[in-house]
Write a structure and sequence with these properties.
9 strands, about 15% helix, about 45% strand, single chain, Immunoglobulin-like
Length: about 150
């Protein structure tokens, strides 16, 4: 019984396939982390702690509603007199908010009322709050799923 080259070729072939599969697993990009749907977070540069909440939940698609925004420093002190600009949209659809929400009242203790918010359809939305105050300019971006 002599040496069987077919077995050697088959084994080498299987090893090559296994090596390619292993290499591909090691170099495959890791999946992106799931977006956070937290309504409280540090701003992008860590200047502020920002929290948002609808004034009268639940948030319904197609209706105007009001949100409350609370802005504090990193050490928890309320930020008074901030200028806050609101924007957002649906990144997957490439469009912004259908309205132009704005701060209509400063309520004290770092709380601000934002009116004129409307989400035109269900899905994944980004809600952006650009804060300008003596500590600096920063932004907090929130992910919402409606």
């Amino acid at each position: 019984m002599g040496f069987n080259w077919r077995y050697l070729v088959a084994i080498v072939g299987l090893l090559a396939v296994a090596l390619m599969a292993f290499t591909r697993m090691q170099t495959a990009p890791s999946p992106e982390s799931a977006p956070s749907f937290s309504l409280s977070k540090a701003s992008e540069n860590g200047t502020y702690l920002v929290a948002i909440e609808p004034e009268a939940p639940p948030v319904k698609v197609g209706e105007l509603h009001t949100w409350m925004v609370t802005v504090k420093t990193q050490d928890g002190k309320p930020v008074e007199g901030a200028s806050i600009t609101i924007s957002g949209g649906m990144p997957a659809h490439g469009h912004g908010l259908p309205t132009s929400p704005e701060v209509t009242a400063q309520l004290g203790e770092g709380r601000y009322r934002v009116e004129g918010v409307k989400f035109s359809m269900g899905g994944a939305w980004e809600f952006r709050f650009a804060v300008s105050a003596p500590a600096g300019d920063d932004e907090a971006v929130f992910n919402l799923k409606l």
